[in-house]
Fold this sequence. Notes:
The protein has helices spanning 7-14, 21-34, 42-53, 65-78, 86-98, 105-118, and strands spanning 2-5, 37-39, 122-124, 138-140. It has 145 residues and is of the alpha/beta class.
Amino acid sequence: MSYALDSNILIRSIEEAHPQQDEALGVISKLIARGAEVFLPPQSLYEFWVVATRPRKDNGLELSGAEAEAILAKFESVFPLKHDSQATYQLWRQLVTQHAVLGKNAHDARIAAALKTHGIARLVTFNKNHFNRFADVTALLPAEV
Length: 145
């Protein structure tokens, strides 16, 4: 089975003392131990960078660019990156129009488009309800994996 990881799983996995850190690390370990194919859509990495380098006062982790880069490199060394394509963009356009997706929710539509383009049906996320509108994406909380 193939899975993709949402940015919040990546963020929580490195956020020391966050109440969801153990759950994020646990689901990553579980997927690896099962031999599951686990991929990263670029949108998850973009969102990771934004939160990782944002100031703490703005709900970020306040990492330096060098620190965030080192963590991205580690994620990419463990999980293959599934690149966006023209097909991803076209599907994203279709999804945001079809489902009247507005504002920052368009980021989730981009993840849904990437998963569909690459034939990945499952997304591990702490925000399962963000993906309810996308019929081809099965969003799973870490405890559901």
